[in-house]
Amino acid sequence: MIFSFLGSAVGCVAGILASQKLTNYRLEQLEAKVAKHNNLVERMTVSELRIKMLEDRRKGESGYKERQAAYCE
C-alpha cells in the first residue's frame, strides 16, 4: 500500500514538472513572437512618418518642418 502511494506521488510530481517545462517553453516562444511584432509596429510608425514627410515636402506644405523635427527626435 505504501509503495502504491509513493508511486502515485512520484508520478504526479513528474507530470507536474513536465507540464511546467512545456508551459515555460511555450511562454518563451510567445514572448519572442510579441517582441517581433512590437519591432514591426515601431518600424511601420517610422516609415509612415517618413512617407508623410516626403509627401509634405513634395507638396510644399508647411507641415514638413514639424514632422521633420518630430522624426529627428
Would you write up a description of this structure?
93% of the residues lie in helices and 0% in strands. It is mainly alpha-helical. The protein has one domain (2-72). The radius of gyration is 27 Å and the shape is rod-shaped. The mean pLDDT is 84.
Short description:
The protein has 73 residues and is mostly helical. Helices cover 93% and strands 0% of the residues.
Descriptive terms for the model:
mainly alpha, 73 residues
Give me the secondary-structure topology:
Blueprint: H1 2-59, H2 63-72
Helix pairs in contact: 1-2
Largest sheet: none
- Counting structural domains, the number is 1
Q: Count the helices. How many?
A: 2
Q: What is the average of the pLDDT values?
A: 84
